[in-house]
Design a protein that fits this description.
The complex is a heterodimer of chains A (262) and B (161).
Chain A: H1 3-37, E1 48-49, H2 52-57, E2 67-70, E3 75-79, E4 82-85, E5 88-90, E6 99-103, E7 106-111, E8 114-119, E9 124-129, E10 138-144, E11 147-152, E12 155-159, E13 166-167, E14 174-175, E15 178-180, H3 183-192, E16 197-198, H4 199-208, H5 216-261
Antiparallel strand pairs in A: 1-16, 2-3, 2-15, 3-4, 4-5, 6-7, 7-8, 8-9, 10-11, 10-14, 11-12, 12-13
Chain B: E1 13-14, H1 18-26, E2 33-36, H2 39-49, E3 57-62, E4 66-74, E5 79-87, E6 90-99, H3 110-113, H4 138-160
Helix pairs in contact in B: 2-4
């Protein structure tokens, strides 16, 4: 066996072995790459994943939700600017919550610079801020005579429709205050407020290797190198085979010619 | 689409605060009026936007001759806040108040916004004028068009109240 044939044989063996081992990783890279290429069409940034093992893998821990604001039939629990109304997740804009009250079917949730109005089915009715509020920096929210009352740094104001506000003169205000959640509501709130990650981020991390920590990207770099080596060895083997075929065909032609001349 | 006046975060490009826009427009802004979105209106707005309206109550300002609507809609990932002034069923003025996207802020330029002036709604709630796009700002242009259609539709509904 010539040394070239020997090398080719070794190339073929290692090409096959490395390819078989790395195939699963290449498949993951290929699939995640294709999917990420269409992330807008697939709305990957909107799809949220709440699988506990995955959230735990990212090192995110959910704080226990122990308290909430008692509304008509439900409790409203707050966490990181979002709320759980019973089992419904309501999205805020990240501000801390200063209180929540319910008047009829409308739930008023107050943050220092905003008041959110929700229906009890979780549908957002309106968001009040800036000019929609009587004064800045809401400190407390409550009810008085069927109207919503805000205590701000500029005084106390009340409104029947959350559109026009009057300065509160005298009324018995029931202020919103945190209460301990019953166990069943605690479970509902924990489920609704469970941390989530966008699918796009998970796929990006999987594609780049970051999902495996700081060494992950190096692993993906190594896979890239392996793929480059496989390309080179594959091309070399193909070239070698082509040459062999070329020589074989040439030899046969030569022999046929010699036979004919004889 | 949300239909309020959102607080701008520090990274947002705030070109004018909604309160300031209303002050410039009306001098002394009238008390806000309210348009409640009935199920039929929600269906129509959903048809215009391609998604359900996020709020059921729309505030607007009307001085008897024109109405001002401060609307929000996502361009690609973040909300664009824009004000639309409608007079006699036609858009009189458009202004981008807050732009939060990374790309496409060219929609704030008056050369683009002037195209909306005089636009009205056709029977199928489309603009009766062709709005030329901006290269690299396609999604923001589409968001502005959708908001313009919603503003005209809301104005029409408010007139019928």
């Amino acid at each position: 066996m010539s040394s070239q044939a020997h090398f080719t044989r070794i190339f073929r063996q290692w090409h096959g072995r490395i390819g078989a081992i790395a195939a699963a990783f290449f498949l993951v890279l290929a699939v995640t790459g294709i999917v990420l290429n269409h992330s807008d069409a697939l709305h990957l940034d909107k799809r949220q994943i709440a699988a506990p093992w995955l959230i735990s893998w990212y090192g995110i821990q959910q704080k226990p939700v122990l308290q909430g604001y008692r509304l008509n039939k439900n409790y409203l629990a707050a966490d990181a600017g979002n709320w759980a109304l019973g089992g419904l997740l309501l999205h805020g804009e990240g501000e801390e919550t200063v209180g929540a009250v319910a008047i009829g079917d409308i739930i008023y949730i107050a943050a220092p610079s905003m008041v959110y109005l929700y229906r009890s089915d979780g549908q957002l009715v309106d968001k009040l801020e800036g000019q929609g509020l009587p004064a800045a920096a809401i400190e407390r929210i409550g009810t008085a005579n069927g109207a919503v009352v805000l205590q701000t740094q500029g005084g106390q104001f009340m409104s029947a429709d959350a559109l026009s506000w009057q300065r509160l003169k005298s009324a018995q205000v029931v202020w919103s205050a945190l209460e301990a959640l019953p166990a069943a509501d605690m479970d509902k709130a924990a489920l609704a407020l469970a941390p989530r990650l966008p699918l796009q981020r998970i796929l990006l991390d999987l594609h780049s290797g970051r999902i495996f920590g700081s060494y992950g990207p190096l692993m993906v770099d190594l896979l890239g190198l392996i793929l480059a080596v496989l390309c080179v060895t594959g091309f070399y083997m193909w070239l070698h085979k082509q040459r062999q075929r070329h020589y074989a065909v040439g030899w046969v032609k030569h022999e046929v010619k010699n036979t004919a001349e004889k | 689409m949300t239909c309020g006046m959102s607080v701008a975060a520090a990274a947002d490009n705030v070109y004018q605060k909604p309160e300031s826009f209303l002050q410039d427009l009306f001098g002394h802004p009238p008390e806000p009026s309210v348009l409640w979105l009935t199920p039929e209106m929600q269906t129509e707005v959903t048809h215009i936007l391609g998604h359900a309206p996020t709020q059921l109550r729309q505030r607007y300002w009307n001085d008897g001759t024109r109405s001002a609507w401060v609307l929000e809609e996502i361009g690609k990932e973040d909300f664009i806040t824009a004000a639309f002034v409608v007079k006699g069923g036609r858009i009189e003025q458009v202004k981008v108040l807050v732009y939060r996207e990374n790309r496409g802020a060219e929609v704030r330029y008056s050369a683009f916004l002037r195209q909306f002036q005089g636009a009205t709604l056709s029977a199928d709630n489309l603009l009766d004028k062709e709005i030329d796009g901006i290269s690299g700002a396609t999604l923001s242009v589409h968001a502005m068009e959708r908001m313009a259609r919603v503003a005209l539709y809301f104005d029409r509904m408010a007139q019928r109240k």
